Each structure stands twice: as C-alpha cells, then as structure tokens.
Amino acid sequence: xxxxxxxxxxxxxxxxxxxxxxxxxxxxxxxxxxxxxxxxxxxxxxxxxxxxxxxxxxxxxxxxxxxxxxxxxxxxxxxxxxxxxxxxxxxxxxxxxxxxxxxxxxxxxxxxxxxxxxxxxxxxxxxxxxxxxxxxxxxxxxxxxxxxxxxxxxxxxxxxxxxxxxxxxxxxxxxxxxxxxxxxxxxxxxxxxxxxxxxxxxxxxxxxxxxxxxxxxxxxxxxxxxxxxxxxxxxxxxxxxxxxxxxxxxxxxxxxxxxxxxxxxxxxxxxxxxxxxxxxxxxxxxxxxxxxxxxxxxxxxxxxxxxxxxxxxxxxxxxxxxxxxxxxxxxxxxx
Length: 335
Prior knowledge:
Layout: E1 9-20, E2 23-35, E3 40-44, H1 51-58, E4 67-76, E5 79-80, H2 86-96, E6 97-100, H3 104-107, H4 114-125, H5 130-143, H6 149-152, H7 162-174, E7 180-184, H8 192-209, E8 212-217, H9 220-226, E9 229-234, E10 237-243, H10 244-249, H11 254-261, E11 266-267, E12 270-271, E13 312-313, E14 320-321, E15 325-326, E16 331-332
Parallel strand pairs: 3-8, 3-9, 6-7, 7-8
Antiparallel strand pairs: 1-2, 1-4, 4-5, 9-10, 10-14, 11-12, 13-14, 15-16
Helix pairs in contact: 4-5, 5-7
C-alpha cells in the first residue's frame, strides 16, 4: 500500500434504518471509514454489530423497503454512490466493486453452470463477446486454483465442493478487475483446512492484483494474520479503528479488549476456559444517545449513560476509539 495514497473508497457518516411493523431498527449509525488502494481493512464485531449491513448499504444490496439508507456519503472515484442512478450503481457493483458472500451455495444460481455465471458480468460490464468471455473465465478459474478449468466451466454449483464453490464466487467477484473487493465472512461455512486455503488465496490475489480488500469477520485470529488495519463495530457504529499491530497490542475500547480476551488459547497440556462477554448487544430501536456498550462495560461511569462518545485519537497514529474512559490514566477522558 503506497504511503499517502488517497482512499479508493471513502465513507462518511453513513446511516441505515430498517422499517419494521414494530418500529425502526437503526442498524448503521454514523459510520465513517476509508480504505486505500492495496490495503486490507478488517471489520470485526459480534453478529448484529452492523458489519454486513454497512457494506451492503454502500453498494445498494439491501432491499428497499424495508431498508432505508437515510444519510451519509459513499465516495468512490469521485462520485457519491448514494446519489448515482441505479443503472450506474449496477455497473459499479458488478465491475469496480466485487462482493464475496458468506455462503456460496445460496449465492450461486443452481440452474446455471459456473461458466455462464462468470461470463455474464464480463459480457455486461466489459463488453466482451462470447469467445473472449469464455477465455477470461478459464483464466479466472485458473487464477483461483480450480484445476481443469476449461472443462469445469460446464459444471453446476452442486458439482463443486464448498471450498471450490467459494473459489468460484471469488472468480466472479474478480471478473471485471475490481478496485475494491468486499469479502463478507467468506470462510465461515468452510472447514479449517479449506479456510486456510481461501485466506492464502486472497493474500496471493491481493499481492498480484493490488486491489483494496474489506474483510468482514468475527474471527480476530484471521484478521491478525491478513489485515493492515482493523475496524471494530458494535451497536451499528465504529467503536475503534487502528493498524492491526496497534489494535492487538494496545486496545483502547472496553469492547475491543473484551473481544481479544475471547480468543481461545492453549497453555501447557490443558486448554483454558473460554472467556465470554457478559450481557447482550443493544436493541437498536433508536439512534444511540448514550454509549451502546455501557450495560456490558466494566469501566462504566455516569457520563456513559447520557452521552454517546465520539471517536478521538488514542495511542499511535491512525488509532482512534469512541470511549469516555482513558486507559492510559485509568479514569475519564478530559473534555
């Protein structure tokens, strides 16, 4: 990643609400972040923290209704993706921003062979003819490590293993040489050996193609090995962001610290008991006016109950956290 590079994707104050029969759900609350060319940004947090909804909001993948992206900017190549017309957004989504979903079996169309599913975006977004698209599809399957690629273009999703289906999904996402690849928990449904293969594949593709990657996961162990920078989400908002080594070595939000303590470890001959974060995530029936983590936080004090903290610089350069508590002094932040 070049030093001083401008962001390829710059998200500012994003807010997304779901309208339900029982009222509104404020799923994404003033989320701000960016990602630079060649950078891998890890996005972590519990289920329901807003990770996937945030990324799907960026490129119009949420059904509307019930979803409503109420506010914010998503700047990509000088244009705000929240303001461009639906046809232009489809071209960005299919061509310049790739998306790899969590479960390839439900994301791939079972009635079309994989060759059709890879060549379709090439013909729509790249203007290739049938012969050109087929040749490129073979290259893509070879790139993601599927043997006998030309023959396997005729196969259907059910004829591939789980790991191979995920490789097909990655090939589709890479078809149009995207500038940004969003991977939404791409290894969750796979066994440990296949997970490791997919992670290595993504690392190799990033080095070869130089694209920016946003990797959504609940697995901090994965992030530690692949990310440049980590964004921690809780209650639909970003609570901490830092370079990966800084985050693991000097966490400055109580939720981040609690997450890190849940990572399994084995010392000596016996495994230690797993730590858990006591309590439940917040119900997002309204935009938070107080700290969303306060009910589970061991450092809670009076200010946490009346004011949602803004992110402020802490620790090393590029490190910020949204917390009223200062771990350096062991007391409240001044101001």
